[in-house]
Amino acid sequence: MKLWRVDFLLHTIMRVLILCTISLTYGQSKEQTSLSQKQLDNITQHYTLSNVDSLSLSQRLYHVSSFLKGAKLSQQDSLVYKGLRQKTWLLSKSKQFDSAIIYSHELYDLARQNKDTFFITNALTKLGFYNKKNSELAESFKYYNEGFKISKISKDSINMGRSLLQMANIQASLGDYSGSKTTAVDGVVYLEKTTDLRNLGGLYHIISVAHIEQKKYEEAFRYNDLALSLGKDSLSAKRIGIKNILVFRNTKANILAKQGKYQKALTILKELVSDPVVQNDRWEYARVIDNLGYIQWLEDEKNENSEQLLLNAKKIREEINDIQGLIASNIHLTKYYFKNDKIKASEYAEGAYQNAKGHRTLTSILEALDFVFKFKENTNEEAKVYSRIHKELEEANQNNREIYAVTRYENDKLANKILVLDAQKAQQESETARQRSQKIMYLLGTVILALSGGFVFYLLQQRYKREKIREVYDAETRISKKLHDELANDVYNVMVQIQNEQNSPDVLDKLEEIYNTTRDISREHNSFTTGENYAAELTNMLSGYSSNETKIIIKDIEDVNWESVDPEKKIIVHRTLQELMINMKKHSEAGLVAVTFKKTLKNVGITYADNGIGVSENEIIHSNGLRNAENRIKTIGGSFIFDSEKGKGFRARISFPN
């Protein structure tokens, strides 16, 4: 049973128990459907007390529960709404997120019953928020998307933008930076002409963060500047939130550091350290001194301040239980000690891994494991976790894309309908004037355009035909040769066997072998996209060779900016890796395969390694598949280097300019 199903079952049981308790404790006869003014005053007093900050959270929860009980007896939905909103808020403050989710569902059910879009949206926002706090990001994304759709119906552009901001943040948390960017850009459309500067700034910020993760630093800088420019005066800065402005400035320092502009980055961070708002906020102060220590180390590994700053940040984060911050601190300390103190580096890497596991931060688990692999000799268990988490992330991101894709399609369809109506109206208004003043010019232009267009079309059509004829010929030749070499002889031999040995079990085995060969040929020649989903398709192709006997690990594929790679190079990379995976499946008997991607300043590097039986130098020389792979890479100016011995696995290093 999947985790979300268990959680759903627990939530349902808790809801039933709470409702039964309310019914048993406060059940009244049907005649008692209203309260006297004195009773209403009494329950209102409970609500007032639930807002008193000097009371403990448990006392405030007691008062709001008493108010909610009375509100339900009064049968006044406005009071029930009020009580449910207050109770979910107090449960959230006390970190009882499961209970907050249950009462948010109750709020949603009541709002749906009354067809009240305001409270439906409010309940969906709460469900998104509390599920996110509970680390149930997929559930959270679903509820925010539903809230967006309701806001779309009620034409509430501010709530639409806010929902999309939360969805973009979730996608970024799951490592889907392309999806996050797309969602956030959609959100900007709804908020850029409103006064909601706080959430507009948040959208610009998450777009900037997505560009940082994709190593598009100029674009990251541009959107960071857009976020900062919103706070051009004290009133605007107050609307955005002073702490949010500080986060934007901290991000600006990180972008500058990524570009190697360390002095400019350090200037910003030193200003932030001295800011009274930062000094009075331990969460923000820890973030700033952690970045300050890390960037000082990047500029000068021998400086005397970095170690203490990094350790101080970690200590503060431990004291305030900032788990996400602790992951960042442990990663920075791992990098700091990596060269000179492997034992400490290993301890901090393990700390980051344990923090990420405890908080179920999937992308951080993978980041921490990348360092754990460098220190531990036996990483079989970690490799299994890495593979499982990677697959879980892929599934979550795919589900989120599908959820929002449907919503986006509905929006586009509505927008297109409006555009068509506007275009028709404009065309009708201008038709008479256009016919009167441009008839002759239009006719002449049409003739010239038709002649020119026809000539160009003819040339392009002829060239296209020649190219397609050649492509078809090459494909037919290749597939024909494959069918002849791999299937014709097998089919003939089976025919002979059937004639001579009609009851031989070998015949069925041979037929199955022919079927598998046919399937492999089909898969080898499948088409694939070279567009924005290229990385996902390449991942799916590689993962498709995983089985119970063979585990496939794919690392750092998102580090490569595939959008900047030529389509022809993408095709060759896909076919080359496919050739390696086919060879592995047929010959290597490997239990573990790792494909690692690395982007340098001028090249893209790919390393393939397996723990199979390996091949001899003579077998490599006579391998048509490997020769084909090498020739493909050479056509794009790259290199393809093999390294293998019998019994020692197979390794290949691919590099090509980009």
From TrEMBL:
Domain of life: Bacteria
Transmembrane segments: 440-460
The keyword Membrane appears for this protein: yes
SUPFAM superfamilies registered for this protein in UniProt: ATPase domain of HSP90 chaperone/DNA topoisomerase II/histidine kinase, TPR-like
Main EC class the enzyme belongs to: transferase
Protein's UniProt name: histidine kinase
Keyword list, A-Z: Coiled coil, Kinase, Membrane, Transferase, Transmembrane, Transmembrane helix, Two-component regulatory system
Gene Ontology MF: a single term: protein histidine kinase activity
BP GO annotations: phosphorelay signal transduction system
Organism, scientific name: Aquimarina algiphila
Regions annotated as coiled coil: 376-431
EC numbers on record: 2.7.13.3
Catalytic activity: ATP + protein L-histidine = ADP + protein N-phospho-L-histidine
